[in-house]
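User: Hey, quick favor. My workstation is busy. Could you predict this chain's structure for me?
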Amino acid sequence: MHSFEETRLLPCASRDLYDVVMDIEAYPQFLPWVAAARILRRSGDDLDAELVAEFAGMRHSFQTTDRFLAGKMIEIRLKQGPFRFLESYWSFDDLGPESCRVHFSIEFAFRNLMLDVVAAPVFTTACRQMVAAFERRALQGKGKHA
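Assistant: No problem, here it is.
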């Protein structure tokens, strides 16, 4: 199993960052490894999404169920795809009107051993860059530069 975890203090309101993370269909615009993204179902405080990821020279589609508490947290769990296991968690805490603490964690393992060996390092690198990509997107929306 592979994992990554990061906590950062960011110069934006937690709601701004939360909104960027929840704007799933915009991911291809700012996450280089996401080729396509769409919401399949939305109901109350959860949704199903599908992402098409490009890593290690291959395209992989996977679906998740995302449970959320508006402005506070997002929990992502695998429904189907090339992973044997995938769970991710975001939490957002305001520290002031224009600052927040964000925590992101992810655990994953690919179903296929060869894919796990080839793609896991690339996917781990993408995860390491994810919080920074969401931060840049949130600050661009506020007219700031990261």
